[in-house]
Structures are given as structure tokens and as C-alpha cells.
Write a structure and sequence with these properties.
It is built from one helix and four strands, in the order E-E-H-E-E. The chain has 95 residues and is mainly beta. The chain has one domain. The chain has a four-stranded antiparallel β-sheet, with helices on one face.
Length: 95
Amino acid sequence: MNMTDSSETAPKMHYICQTYVAKAGKGAGQASMQIGKQFQYTSASPAQERAERESKSDACIGADAYMVIEDQESGEVGMPTFLARFGSVPEIDAF
């Protein structure tokens, strides 16, 4: 490996659109939220546009667009940075 090639070790940014759907609870009238679909993009704008579009769908109760940074060496992914949130979404501290 060429040690001067920093692209191998540079942090990688992932832009995600994640949707949420209602999940019926076991008790009467209890419903919870679960992740529906995830879409990955190379920039923020398409992720935000998709989240807004998906949040308007009948099957979807909410959607987030967020960015995470992946450390290429360790494979670890940092906490999400939210770009846009639409509809019913989980509390940020749920991540």
C-alpha cells in the first residue's frame, strides 16, 4: 500500500435517509415505531429530499436524513448528525 495515499484512511461520510413505520403493540392501543427502509447517498441533498418524500408516504410515519462518519481503519461509525427530520421520529438520544 502506498503510504502517501490518504484516501484509504480518510474518514468516509455516509448520508442516510431512514424511514419509520408504526408497529402494532401487544397491548390495546399500544404502538411503537420501527425502522422501515434505509437509503444511502453520496451527498446530503438527495438524502434530505428522499426523507421529505418518504415522510409523505402513507406507509411511513416519519423519516430522518442524517450523516455518519466512518473511520476507514477501524470500521467504527460515529454518532449521527441529523440533517432533516420529518413526521414522527425517535428521540435523538435513542441512537
